Each structure stands twice: as C-alpha cells, then as structure tokens.
Amino acid sequence: MSPARSAAVASRVGIALGIAVTICFVTGLISHWVQHPPAWFWWPANPVWLYRFTQGAHVVAGVVAIPLLLVKLWAVFPRLFARPLIGNPLHLLERGSIAVLVGSMIFQLITGLFNTAQFYPWKFFFTTTHYAMAFVSFGALAVHLAVKLPVVRSALARPDTSTAGSPPDEAGIAGRRSVLVAAGAAAVVAGVAIAGQTVPILRRISVLAPRSGDGPQGLPVNRTANEAGVSELARSAGYRLQIIVGDRTHRFTYAELVALPQTEAEIPLACVEGWSASAHWSGIRVRDLLAAVGEYRGGDVEFRSLEPSGLYNRSLLPETHVVDSATLVALRLNGEDLDLDHGYPCRLIAPTRPGVLQTKWLSAIEVQV
Ligand SMILES: Nc1nc2c(c(=O)[nH]1)N[C@H]1C(S)=C(S)[C@@H](COP(=O)(O)O)O[C@H]1N2
Ligand SMILES: [Mo]
User: Fold this and answer.
1) Which of 48-57, 216-225, 250-259, 348-357 has the lowest mean pLDDT?
2) Is the separation of the CB atoms in 269 and 357 below 8 Å?
3) Is the CB of 104 inside a 6 Å radius of any atom of ligand 1?
4) Ligand 2 centroid to 211 CA: how many Å?
5) Domains plus CATH for the chain?
6) Residue 191 and which of 212, 236, 336, 351 are 20 to 30 A apart at CA?
7) CA 248 – CA 330 distance, rounded (Å)
C-alpha cells in the first residue's frame, strides 16, 4: 500500500472536504428556503448581493469538493474493502454510513455539476432530489465524523513525520506531502474553473462556467421568449399589465407604465444554477405601482407571466421585498428597453433573490389575501 494512503492524508483532505460540504449544505438550505419559504423563514432584501454570494459559494464549494472527494477516496480506497466487511454492530454502522456517505456525495456533486451546465440526463426532478439527498449525505457525514473522531485526532496530533511506531520514513512523508499539495492544487483549479460565472475577472479563465457567456444587453438568458412561447403576446398592442390590490384592479398599458415615475437600481441577476451577473435596471417601484391601484396592507404578492405554463411562470414576493425601495417592475436594462428575451414589456426584479423568482413577461400582479 502506498505510504501516502495514510490517516494523515485522509484526515487532512477529509477536513477540507467536510468544510466544503458544510458550506454546500448551509447555502443549499438557504437557497431552498428562499424558493420555498417555510412559515418561519425570513430572508432580507439587503444587501442586494446576498443571494448572489450564498449561491456562488454553494456552486464553488461543490465544485471544489469534487477533487477533494476523489483524493479522499483514493487515500482510503484499500480500506474500503478491508475485512471483515460486516463484523460487530458498531463496525456495521460505520461501514453502512460510509457506503451511504460516498454514494450520496457522488450523487450530489455530479447532479449539482450537471445542473450548473443545465444538463439533465436523468428522469427525476433535480431540485427536490438534490434537496432530499443533502440531508442523507450530511447526516452520513455527521455519523462518519463522530465514528472517526479519534482517528482524525491522533492523525492530526502526530506531527507528519512518521507512521506510528515506525522510524521516520522520508519517502512516505514526501509522498503524503505531494498528495496533499496535489489535492489542494486540484481544488483551487476546480474552484477557479467555476467561479467565473459569478466573479467577472475570472470569467475568461473559467472553463467550467458555461452560463457566463453574453446574452442580449450583456446578460445571459436562461429561457428565451420563443422557448417560453410569449413572443407574440409580449409584442401585442393589446398588452396590459393587470394589477390587483384587494377589490381594486387596474390594467396598465405599456405607455402608462412608461409614464409613471421611474427608479434605477443596480441589482445582480443570480441564477440558482450558479451564474450571476450585475445589471442596471430601471422601472417602477413595486410599492408605488401597488399604491397607484389601492392600499397594500402587507402579505405576499404574486407575479404572473404571459408564459402560459411552466414552473417559472409565476412567483411569490414576500412583504420584505414588496416594500423595498429597490424592488422594481423593470422596463429597462443597462440603458435600453428590456430585450424581449429579458422579459419585455416588463419583468420583476427584486434584490437578493434567485433568478428563477425574477419573473419575466409580466401579465399580472396580485396582492394575496
Ligand atoms: N416567465 C419566466 N420568467 C423567468 C424564467 C422563465 O423561465 N419564465 N426564468 C427565470 C430564471 S431561471 C432566471 S435565472 C432569470 C434569467 O433572466 P434573464 O433571462 O433575463 O437573464 O429569469 C427568470 N424569469
Ligand atoms: Mo435561473
């Protein structure tokens, strides 16, 4: 067995991997709760880049975890099949948790990576499966850590100069060092390769950032107007934006919207798939638009799209965001009227929200009762 396949290597790489996985778990929970808020959940509207940051961290940590997991598996590989496979109950628990841990982590990292590329070569629904599996793998990680704590402790306490009981072994130390350096380098390369979809200066060297490319008006597009089947409706002279506040309704023409006081805001679009880009928006404050129709008394507001079907043709905006001064029904992007693919005639744009909730091609806005 290679001397680099030691507890010293496995523990150190394991700690880095544990940190990456914890970042993924926490930021993943946040992203899930923002999109499907439980009653107790509250998410701020400031700072505007908060969701961009948490989701960027989620994707970068996930990609960094891939080489770490590979090195970790390599370091412990011979022991995965050590006899006895089953043994006493504690041993059985340990083996079982490792099987679950390895399987679920591979699943999470692969499905997550494919999701950043919008590549779905499977039949299940990504979001719910990735969410459920996160609890499985984080739970297995906790059990694994608890079981391995003594091994980790002694591996870290011992200076990395010898294997217990044997004389210092120069080749072994050098081997272990080079594995650790290689693991670190691979993790950095992987992180940089994906980070470009959130960090502009890294964009040109980010080979793994498939969605950072340009779209119209300098912003990527996930779903075009044609794909959404709204091109005609969105350009129709009969277009109206219906606003419903309590028992009052008003149907605004595009010209009426343009004539209302316009506000500008710098708000990044941050897709759940990890890409994000800063953008300059201009439009009508949502709170002003509601006030023009009736009295908003709090609660969620629903934003509906012209898009006839699909998961993303509506979203619920919580009160914190409804009243925020940067939350807009945007008409303009980066100094031009919204491109059809970015949501013309108008779209929702609210600070620190996942892109998927920034509904394009708005048809109606309704205060929920
Ligand atoms: N009606 C509608 N709005 C939508 C979508 C959609 O499919 N339909 N996609 C959402 C997603 S997933 C993202 S990331 C953003 C992207 O906005 P952009 O295409 O203007 O960049 O729009 C959001 N708004
Ligand atoms: Mo998205």
Assistant:
1) 216-225
2) no
3) no
4) 10
5) 3-202 (1.20.950), 216-367 (3.90.420.10)
6) 351
7) 22
